Every structure is written in C-alpha cells, then in structure tokens.
Amino acid sequence: MLYLLAEWLNFEGVFNLVRYQTFRAGATLMTALFIGLVIGPRFIDMLRVRQGKGQPIREDGPQSHLAKRGTPTMGGLMILISLSLAVLIWMDLSNPFIWACLAVTLGFGLIGFLDDYDKVSKASHKGVSGKVRLLLEFAIAGVASYLIVGQINTFLYVPFVNDFGIELGYFYFVFAAFVIVGAGNAVNLTDGLDGLATMPVIIAAGTFALIAYLVGRVDYSEYLGIPHVAGAGELAIFCAAIMGAGLAFLWFNAPPAAVFMGDTGSLALGGALGAIAVATHHEVVLAIVGGLFVFEALSVIIQVFWFKRTGKRVFRMAPIHHHFEQLGWSESKVVIRFWIVAIVLALMGLATLKLR
C-alpha cells in the first residue's frame, strides 16, 4: 500500500526510503510487532470468554500439562492478523511471490482454525480428520506451487554445489506442494510446549529473510553461486512480518502461556516457510534450517511405524519433545535447549550460501 503510494509520488523526499527492501523489512517487522502487542490482551480475553474451557488437554500426555487447562487456543489468529496487515501496508502489491505465500499462510490458517474450532466445540483433541486436512492442504499448496513455479524454473538446486540444479520438470509441482504441506505439518507437530515452535519459526524466518534478499539480487547471487530469482527479495518483507508477529505472540505465549497458538498458527507459519523456501529455490536448505521441525516430524513417523510393526515404542512419547519431558526434563529446559538447536541449524543453513 505505502509502496504504491511512494511509487506514485516518484519516491520523492522521505518516500525514497520505501524504495529499499531492507527499510521496508525492518518497518514491517516493527509494524507486525506493534499490531500484535496492541490487539493481544483484548484478543486473548475474547478467546477466553468464547472458549470457556479452552484447548482440550490430552489425559495421556505429560501430567504437568494438566495445569494448563482453561488456556485459550486459536492464538494463531493474532499472528495472522498482525502479519497480514503489516505485509499489506509495506509490500509491493504487484509481486506474485508475496500473494502466493500469503495465500498459503491464510489458507493453512483457515484449515487450522477449523481444526481448533472442532476441538474446542467438541472438547476433544481429535479435531478434523487427518485425511480431510491433508486433502485441503495439498489443494492450497498445489495452487500456490502453480503460481510460484510460473515465476521460476523447475530445477531443484543442491546446496554446497556451485549453481547446480536437477531438472524435475512437471514433477517439481508435486515436489513443491509436498515441501509446503510437509513444512506446515512439521511445525504443527512441534507446537506442543509454551514457546517451543514460535522461536524456531522466528529464527527460520530471519534466516530466510537474508536468503530471500540475496537470491533477489543479481550481484549477490552470482557472487555466492546461488540461483537468482527476480522479485524474490520482496519475500524478505514477508519473513520480517512473520518475525514481528511471532515476537508479539511470544510475549503472550511465554511460560506460563496466556494463549496457545493452536493449529491456526502452527499450520499457517509452517506452510509459509515452505512456500518461501520453494519461491527462493532453497527447499533443501529449509530441511537444514528447519531441522528441528524435521526431527519432530520424524519422531512421530518412526514411533507410529515401529509401534504398528512391533507393538513397542522407540520413544517414551512422541513428538520428541514429550520424550525428553518423560525423561525428567522440565518444560523450560526442553524449550530453551531446542531453541539453541534451532539457532545452530540456522547457522548451518546460512553456511551453505558460501560453502560451495
């Protein structure tokens, strides 16, 4: 919105600042943070009144979680509102990548909202059928992949190798949709403790803000030997919005949480990261930067597969963060140590930009 206004005014005077993506990224972060902090208290009060008993707590989960009964969920709506408003204020409205990523974010957020609503209204942790959820997610991811791939090529670029890619052809559409859906559900599985998923998402978004900016610049992408994607630099603004909205939510989600993100937020943020990774041609790097999410998802897959085959468990409880709780780690210890892992993985992901 402001970018179009500045463009109409030929970027005269102070509006010249709006020309620069770095300035708009910083402004977007602060705008999303401000909006989130302002609407947070009243929004949480509204959720508490409307939901009554709040998010259902699993009886078979860690006993310490039973004390969280009554905490409202669907806090992801706060994230979506502040993120969307900040992006629309500062983005270049003509950029197709932003619209594709925003569509995934809001679409996955809607699926998560329906799931959260079903859980709250029925006082059950089951929610919407997994098959229905996946079908809807792949439908949204498929449309977004079509929009994104229309602006880029169909190569899968390999990190640590200088400007090398594997041509996937039409299969790239399927691959891109799988990345988006996989990222959404991986973050969703990670969101099980206060602040556990939020900070790693912020860290990953900050990492991809830098990647998007570098990919969008011809000079930097040539120097680093990474694929250049015209217009991808605008995604740094989207990443900044995720960071600002995430920080605002973390203010209220810090232990003991006043509100839970719910599937509304975790599915949306994960899907957004997946869409950004596809648009910047750094899908493999997302698996490194978001390695914590991958590990959480794998722990569930391994647990289910092994239990069905042998009747025994690999972990005391899955996802893996509950396993460490069962080992006697306090919730805060699990969260902070997982944050440290997320930071290390983000640094490893950034290292792939130069180690080629």
How are the SSEs placed, and which strands pair?
Elements: H1 2-8, H2 21-51, H3 76-90, H4 96-122, H5 130-149, E1 155-157, E2 165-167, H6 171-190, H7 198-215, H8 218-224, H9 235-253, H10 262-279, H11 283-289, H12 291-310, H13 320-326, H14 331-351
Antiparallel strand pairs: 1-2
Helix pairs in contact: 2-3, 2-9, 3-4, 3-9, 3-10, 4-5, 4-10, 5-6, 5-10, 6-10, 6-12, 7-9, 7-10, 7-14, 10-11, 11-12, 11-14
Describe the structure.
- Pfam families: Glycos_transf_4, MraY_sig1.
- One of its GO terms (molecular function) is phospho-N-acetylmuramoyl-pentapeptide-transferase activity.
- Pathway: Cell wall biogenesis; peptidoglycan biosynthesis.
- The protein is mainly alpha-helical.
- It has helices at residues 2-8, 21-51, 76-90, 96-122, 130-149, 171-190, 198-215, 218-224, 235-253, 262-279, 283-289, 291-310, 320-326, 331-351; strands at residues 155-157, 165-167.
- A hairpin with a 7-residue loop joins strand 1 and strand 2.
- The longest helix has 31 residues, at 21-51.
- The two termini are 39 Å apart.
